Amino acid sequence: MQTIRITTPQNIDIDYEIAGIGERIVARLIDMGLFIVILFAGLIIAGITGSMGSELTITILVIIYAIMFVFYDLICEITMNGQSFGKRIMKIKIISLNGARPTLGQYMLRWLFRIVDFSLTFQACGLICAAVSDKTQRLGDIVAGTTLIKTHPRTTIDTLAFTPAVENYVPVFNEVTQLKDHDIVILQEVINTYVKTGNTEIVYSAARRTKELLAITQQVKMDDLRFLQTVVKDYNYLVSVNDQLINN
Predict the structure, then answer these.
(1) Mean of the per-residue pLDDT values for the chain?
(2) Nearest to residue 144, comparing CAs of 118, 100, 105, 115?
(3) Residue 154: its pLDDT value, please?
(4) Kind of pairing, strands 146-150 and 3-7?
(5) pLDDT band at residue 126 using 50, 70 and 90 as cut-offs
(6) Per-residue confidence at 197, pLDDT binned at 50, 70, 90?
(7) Whether 102 contacts 144, CB under 8 Å
(8) Which of 116, 96, 119 is nearest to 106 (CA)?
(9) Can you name the residues that pair with 217 across neighbouring β-strands?
(10) Closest to 188 measured CA to CA, from 167, 213, 162
(11) Which helix (H) or strand (E) holds 235?
């Protein structure tokens, strides 16, 4: 499983999975399907309004449609933070190989190389490059220094079952009530990533950021991994207690 490290909105570094070739293909098919729908909708509207008989109108519509088709990916990726509608549906996005948001120049390079990846080679170049590349990169990605990642973490709040409160359990950090469900999902994802990769750097970064966020200034007598596990457990307990109080 290939991953790339990015910084979440909570300023916590985490490894995200690189999107597979199947997800990229489906996203592209969705985008192409969108233009097919637009084409048929335009033909229906033109037939109803009777504008099909005007050569000037047809020419203008064809030009507009061609411009939309050519610049669709570039405009979407720039304005939608590395996503087209197909990519958004498939929950994947473009990211620079250093984990940052791609620059305008990188978006432009990817877009220009679509001519080689898709048009001139009838999709073959892009498909072959993505299939053999370690980071599932088409030629445009390789030149621009980008790839696609899955935008959703493998852990979701639904998988963090809040178990009933243990009567004799005492939370270590009551400050965790300042966190939200999404923060706990990110922390659990960091823990899961460490278990799979042994990457201590992301654990250290997440622990440091969490201490800053919760304003924990006293010396914590546990390692960073144990600290994150305790934060998740404390949050789990306090949420469970709160739910019991509401239900009662």
Answers:
(1) 85
(2) 105
(3) 61
(4) unpaired
(5) very high
(6) confident
(7) yes
(8) 96
(9) none
(10) 162
(11) helix 224-247
Contacts of 183 (CB under 8 A, 6+ apart): 10, 213
Structure tokens at 171: 């939370």
Q: How many residues does the chain have?
A: 248
Give yes or no for residue 125 having a pLDDT over 80.
yes
Q: Amino acid identity of 126?
A: G
- Chain centroid offset of residue 241 CA: 33
> pTM of the predicted model, to two decimals?
0.70
pLDDT in tens, 169-189: 888 898 998 988 888 888 988
Amino acid at 241: V
What's the token pair of residue 193?
């990533």
For residues 113 and 182, what is the distance between their CA atoms, to the nearest angstrom? 37
By C-alpha distance, which of 217, 216, 248 is closest to 234? 216
Distance, in Å, from the CA atom of 130 to the CA atom of 233, rounded to the nearest integer, reads 41
Residue 168, judged by CB atoms within 10 A of its CB (0-12, 13-18, 19+), counts as exposed
